Amino acid sequence: MELDKIKEKDLKMGKANQEVFSETMQALAKTDKNIIAVTSDSRGSGKLVPFGQKYPNQIVEVGIAEQNLVGVAAGLASAGKKTFAVSPACFLSARALEQIKNDVCYSDNPVTLVGISSGVSYGALGTTHHSLHDYAVLRAINNIIIVAPADNFETEQAVRLAAESDKPVYMRYGKKAMPFLNEDNKTFEFGKGRVVREGDDIAIIATGETVYPAWLAAKMLEDKHGIKATVVSMHTIKPLDVNLLKELAANGKPIITVEEHMVNGGLGEACASYLFQNGYKNTFKIVGIPDEYTVTGSQVEIFNHYGISQDGLYNICKNLLDI
Amino acid sequence: MTDKELKLKSVFLRRNLLKYIYKAKAGHTGGSLSCVDTLNVLYNRVLNVDPADFKNPDRDRYIQSKGHCVEALFVTMADRGFFPESDLETLCQYQSHYIGHPTKKVNGVEQNTGALGHGLPICVGEAIAAKLDNKTHRIFTLLGDGELPEGSNWEAFLSAAHYKLDNLYAILDYNKQQITGDNAEVMNTDSVREKLEAFGWAVKEVDGHNLEELEAALNNGPLEIGKPSFIIAHTIKGKGVSYMERNLKWHHGVPTPEQYELALSELNEAEALI
């Protein structure tokens, strides 16, 4: 099933999260001249062209130079600017990793690192353009909040909170339009998972753009079998919401995690680490991209290939529940 | 402070940095001795900083990109009153804030550095911020010649010129040696002046052990309006101790008791001649 073809009665369709990022940046800059975007020839893909036109003194272009992007952003943040360093997630988190580690995190400069076109958003462009390592490498760095908002509401909230954060934030999102996942649960806080669908039979903990197929799979389970799944948007990978994890694990039912990231070192391993070390014995399954050269195709095709889809997740849940 | 006192200060700082390297049994001796005159001039003649009001937003910024030569920085800052010199007794000891690279845990240190090629990009961000806020303070960084090949420096050279950051001063401690050998053998840094001028910087070459020349280059406004300033300070690795000068063994060598005494006697002789 195409992710972007959904029935209106199921969920209200929103915009691409990067559009929401741009609009929120403009809204913030309207009243705060300290909001600064730093881009590496990425204002087009980052949807920051209108921001740059409206606020030419609040955008700094460094050209295609990601190490300098993050170093300059650290200097601006050190001078009191609310700095957003915007670059494709693949380059930002790999090429500038040492600058993220030292200039931002170790030096305690509260830059927001915005990884655009993340995960496999650049589908057919291949491994050079995929960011399937970013949670893993950044989880290993002290003093950073890692966030993958799942819908427009979460994205807007994440940008607003990041602007005021006294800690560095890494935020990543993709290019596709996202539906609003739960209009009733409009609470957002870094480090607190957001329940977007409630149920008692199985828990699906997803993050970023995988929350939507998880939601669809949960609906399918309910429609076909009356199985009720809890679906959580675990938008903050670090710090992890261990209290919510405890609640989800308490009934002993199966738990699956879903992420647009390699299975090594991502959300699933973070959850497993907590649960196993704290004595939980729930059936547990990590769904993500396996440790292999990723198949090419569109984001949706890659998702389908690895079971990060309505049907794939539905089948995984069915097997775990033995139905 | 008179010019003579400033010269005496350089000898004092050399003696002190050797003392704490000797005590800690660790340190980057040769590079600290080559850049300590620059630090002396910066902290005593150039930087508008107040140890008692270190966070003043109008202060000049100094970020030491060649972070491994922290001993030169620490003894200069201690002498300037940022922290008691006795703190340096803990240099590189368990749980000390005075580790082998600059950290913000030490009063007056602007940024954590140590990995090479990081200081200049941060300074570019600081300099852009100062321009945006119409502030007149200056931003200084000290680069080692061994770190010049780091690509991030060249990214930053481009952007500093692009944004016409004439509030930014990069000083190259050009002792022409690095851990493996001469720059010329490891990675050629010849024609630094031409390279930087081609990148759009204003460049001045000085004798990096001549305090007057250093002060004149750093304290009379930008070398050129609308351009970042690049000061090539020609220095000698291990400067001030005869057996350490230009001897790679002292990149991070620690003197024996006999060598330490010999170094002190040489510095005492130099002091007597000032």
| Biggest β-sheet description of chain B | 5 strands, parallel
Q: State the low-pLDDT regions of chain B, or none.
A: none
Low-pLDDT windows of residues of chain A: none
Q: What is the CATH H-level superfamily of the largest domain in chain A?
A: Thiamin diphosphate (ThDP)-binding fold, Pyr/PP domains
Give the termini separation of chain B. 15 Å
**Biggest interface found:** A-B, 29 and 30 residues
Q: Count the helices of chain A. How many? A: 12
InterPro entries (chain B): THDP-binding, Transketolase_N
Keywords (chain B): Thiamine pyrophosphate
Pfam families (chain B): Transketolase_N
Protein name (chain B): Transketolase
What labels would you give this structure?
heterodimer; A: 323 residues; alpha/beta; Rossmann fold; 2 domains; seven-stranded mixed beta sheet; five-stranded mixed beta sheet; 12 helices; 14 strands; B: 274 residues; five-stranded parallel beta sheet; two-stranded antiparallel sheet; 7 strands; 41% helix; 12% strand; globular; Transketolase-like_Pyr-bd (chain A); 1-deoxy-D-xylulose-5-phosphate synthase (chain A); EC 2.2.1.7 (chain A); transferase (chain A)
What does this structure look like?
The complex is a heterodimer of chains A (323) and B (274). By secondary structure, chain A is α/β, with parallel strands linked by helices. Chain A contains twelve helices and 14 strands. In chain A, the strands form three sheets. Chain A has a seven-stranded mixed β-sheet with strand order 3-2-4-5-7-6-12, with helices on both faces. In chain A, strand 2, helix 2 and strand 3 form a beta-alpha-beta unit. In chain A, helix 1 runs parallel beside helix 7, helix 3 runs parallel beside helix 5 and helix 8 crosses helix 12. In chain B, the strands form two sheets. Chain B has a five-stranded parallel β-sheet, with helices on both faces. Chain B has a two-stranded antiparallel sheet with strand order 4-5. Chain B is globular. Chain B starts with a helix and ends with a helix. Chains A and B meet through helix 3 and helix 5 of A and helix 4 and helix 5 of B. Chain B: Its cofactor is thiamine diphosphate. Chain B: Pfam families: Transketolase_N. Chain B: InterPro entries: THDP-binding (IPR029061), Transketolase_N (IPR005474). Chain B: Belongs to the transketolase family.
